[in-house]
Design brief:
Distance between the termini of chain A: 42 Å
Low-confidence stretches of chain B: none
Number of helices of chain A: 10
Number of helices of chain B: 11
Largest sheet of chain B: none
Number of strands of chain B: 0
Mean pLDDT of chain A: 87
Radius of gyration of chain A: 19 Å
Structural class of chain A: alpha/beta
Helix content of chain A: 40-55%
Structural class of chain B: mainly alpha
Strand order of the largest sheet of chain A: 5-6-7-3-8-9
Oligomer: heterodimer
Low-confidence stretches of chain A: 247-269
Largest interface: A-B, 29 and 25 residues
Mean pLDDT of chain B: 92
Distance between the termini of chain B: 25 Å
Strand content of chain B: under 5%
Radius of gyration of chain B: 18 Å
Largest sheet of chain A: 6 strands, mixed
Amino acid sequence: MAQADHTISVKHLSKKYGELAAVNDISFEVAAGSIFAFLGPNGAGKTTTIKMLTTLVAPSSGKMSVNGFDPVAEPSKVRHSFGIVFQDPSLDDDLTAYENMFFHAGLYGVSRAETPGLIKEFLEFVELWDRKDDLVKRFSGGMRRRLEIARGLLHTPAIIFLDEPTVGLDPQTRNHIWDYIKKLNRDRGLTVFFTTHYMEEVERMADSTAIIDHGRLVANDTVENIVKKSNSQSLEDAFIKLTGRQIREEEASAVDHLRKQGRMWGRRR
Amino acid sequence: MRSNVLYAIYILWLRQLKRYFRSRSRMIGSLGQPILFLVALGFGLRSVYAAAGEGNYIQFLSPGIIAMSILFTAIFSGIEVIWDRQFGFLKETLVAPVSRFAIMLGRTLGGATVAAFQGILVLVISVLIGFRPELSSILPSLVFMILIALIFTALGTAIASTLEDMQGFQLIMNFVVMPVFFLSGALFPLETAPPALKVIAVFNPLSYGVDGLRAVMIGSSHFNVWVDVAVQVAIAAAFIGIGAWLFSRIKA
């Protein structure tokens, strides 16, 4: 698979939408087989970065490598390399859990002989095998997330992207999901790239962490070092110190949001 | 690699069929309109049509209503792209290692199959109501049903690829689907229509579908049956091309 020690490598990556730089000259690396947390307030550039890494959006400038491939030049190879759980649901509600898995296998060119065995393995892994013939529209939020994770793993990728995988779930389900992910990381060497707003998940799971704000990286280190360097008590504390202003303004109205963007701009130029 | 692409197209085709056959209410619901047209217009205008010396109106009308039901089902199948965008499934297909063209083609073939099947259902119903097509016409009429289905599923996909949400839906109904249906000669003979309507019909893809169905089913046509085939094959190819291009530009 990848030659380098880094499964993901990003150098001077930028994405501009007209005047606004959603992502502004960021560089970071994710070690093979590690768990990487990518944090930031809403609208900071997390999802745009994930979209660029996963071939959905082309960057304005900069270089990326995912599993040794370039998302711009070799999108198909990159797409085989990762599984993804999007922030919003992406299942077909009118199909059964099994059919969602089966169609995914077909789209990813998974060997037809191996498909049934792999579907069973991953549905059992997320404890949904006994519900395989139920329509997804009858699933709870937690079950859908588990199914999406199972589906994202079905083509045995080297990397899984999880964009806020535990948002809106109760603590029991969240714990369950992280247990699965930890197990996959440990047993199969899967590289995990995730975003979240729950800092305790980062403290518990992440080998390294990057924090993005206004499209720029404001921290990129282990959790311990980020806390230490910012003279904070906890990661939550450090996060607010590094990105503070924005948190408060996230609750502001749409007009305030526009003003904020204007200010943000003025400050940078 | 090639077989993988074909298999992916097959998978997307299969998905459309599964969704269709699973929602009985949609299948039965979309039969209501053609039945209403067949009964109300077919019986309501029968004596007027006969008095004008044109013969049996049910014979004339049925191919038009079959074409109508295919048109509606096909456009809606294409427009399902918007639903998939709203419910998120579209993203799942857009990050898959399959070209956008293959995704669009698989969806379109699936939607067209569903629409053609709907046309067959309406054919059966119209026979029950009194339509008597020539028996030898069944196979050639299938060709025309499939062509109509392909053209309008591709058109629906093309339109849906440019829309963000369902807001534009009413617009499509009133300014695309309804005019295409009413100005196609589905309900009235183009021979005796005013020149303006005749000219409009020449530029309406559905006219050729309706005409082709009539040519094979009841042996009367306004254009030539081979013209009907040639024009529709060309339009289907063009719409699939345009649809694929617009679909490939969808932003996730």
